[in-house]
What we know:
By secondary structure, the chain is mainly β.
Amino acid sequence: MCYAVSADGGLSWKKSTGESYQLPITEATAEVVKSIPQGSNLINQTSMTVDHQANPYIVTYFKAEGDSCTQFHVIFQQQGCWKSSVATNRTHDFDLGGVGSRSIPISRPQLMVLSHGKDQQLALIYRDEELDNHVVVASTTIAESFNWSSQIISPYPVDRWEPSYDTELLRRNNMLHLYLQKVGQGQGETSVALEPQMVNILEINMTGTFQKTIK
């Protein structure tokens, strides 16, 4: 996992240290923030955010060297150093390899910073077949050490749903509303038999216990 940031719409890029990259960025010049072995179920197109101090947080999933199961990992910078934290404790593994698109037992994640009084919380939203394909939020207060806890927040299983939310509502009002719909996906561009499903908005009340309202 490598890191670059641009303040001018991609015309120029810098490392987290402020050092400017010479373009194009290559494997030899990139700032490596986490070494991840090949063949580790690393997913593409994941999520990142920043806290109120503009510290970056990146979430993805992969199977770390020596681990028996794929987990969600949050990679972040704290006091100038890159660190990582395992946010889940999954027990059912899978193989991400194969031809075409995959019907994956866990969704891609969404990661956001929520304000709760004077504290800032990281909230990781995902769906997991291990938990009957419910939507799960794993959260921790941003501190020197992370203490993750998780809970199911969906009122019904959502099958192969992937998380999306109202980004502007969160940014402006610190309110988290998730788009919710049960969806199906077959392996390798195949379809599954699924009747039309209701669309709901899952409103999350960020009181520390993540109470929910479905509409």
